[in-house]
Amino acid sequence: MAAWVHDEGAAQGSRSRQEDDYGVFELPPELEAGDLLLVLADGMGGEQAGGRASALAVRSFIDAYDMATAAAIPDRLEQTLTRVNERMARDVASDPYGLHGMGCTLLAVVLAEEGLYWISVGDSPLWLWRQGRLHRLNQDHAYRSILAQQVSTGEISAAEAARHPDRNALISAVTGADLELVDVSRQACPLKPDDQVLLASDGLLTLDEKEIAAVLSRARAESHPCQRLLAAVAEHRNLHQDNVTVLWARSAVVLPAAPWWRRFGMRASLLGVVLGVLAVSGVWWWLVQDDMPLTVSTVATP
User: Fold this and answer.
1) DSSP string of 212-246, one letter each residue
2) In which band, very low, low, confident or very high, does the pLDDT at 244 lie, cut at 50, 70 and 90?
């Protein structure tokens, strides 16, 4: 069983209510289904429904994952998502008028000894931070992903995509209806000791990926980087800031940075090799010159 360090944080932004929810659950070894489960949901559906949907999804996912019968982690994640969607359908049916349009994104990550597994529906991003760079792992189930594809094929311009009124509309969400798109990792994504894993609601996209990566680069030796990310979002002073939730994890085994004297020693060793080569070359040149016969000029006198 691998050891993991994790951190969580959330902010309401400028919204009148918090519609994000999350949970982190350390999995019992006897379950043999990973070490750590992280779940995040971003709700939608109006004044009451958004927060209700995200809370229902997170809690029912954690419960259902524990009770799932599938042995392989990807199959267990799929089975759990099906149970959550069924539970959402029953909840909506209990008050079809008041809960019309209720749903949420859902992102669940399992950290295991062999690496990282995930399942996601919606646009909540999952990133891997490695060597100072951020890599998005899951699919973006928002209409902006279709617009981006149309930009790449030349169907529309980047400016048209940026101002499209439906660019942030979800094309898949957990609503109790048939799931249009589900992104699930069939194989574990191997992790290195210095890697960081970040889950977020789309409110974090006030920051671009370079800004997020920079915060994680500065905070990689810490155990609580989420507050730094939330502070960076707040510094933008976005008048329409969405709810923001961030979950972060890394292996408890971190490769230490080389101490300054060792880094200096490596540079000094390289410099020593260069100077040594120059010194040997100089000695060789001197010996060659020393072995050459002297040329004596004679001047005839009249």
Assistant:
1) HHHHHHHHTTSS--HHHHHHHHHHT--TTPPPEEE
2) very high
